[in-house]
Amino acid sequence: MTSSSLTSSSSSLSKLSSSEISGFGVLPVAALKSKIVEKIQENRVTLLVGEIGCGTSLFLNLIIVIFFN
Predict the structure, then answer these.
(1) What's the whole-model pTM score?
(2) Is the pLDDT of residue 9 over 50?
(3) What phi and psi, each to the nearest 5 degrees, are found at residue 52?
(4) Model pLDDT for residues 12-56, shown as the tens digit of each residue
(5) What is the rounded CA–CA span in Å between residue 45 and residue 41?
(6) End-to-end CA distance of the chain
(7) Are 55 and 64 in contact (CB under 8 A)?
(8) In the chain, where does DSSP find H-type helix?
């Protein structure tokens, strides 16, 4: 990933944190958003394990689509 795409991705992430996840803030995985994105960038394969209802199925996909597009 180039630095220019990281810059645009970072601005997308801040948009995500302010408006699009207002209802997701109560999910445990929402509190770890920055750390999840960091680990995905650092590791080619990232395994995220969470209990039912923690937000991995819904919120994680939203993070990936917005941050890495």
Answers:
(1) 0.61
(2) no
(3) -60, 130
(4) 445 555 445 556 667 888 888 899 999 999 998 999 888 998 888
(5) 9
(6) 11
(7) no
(8) 3-15, 33-42, 59-67
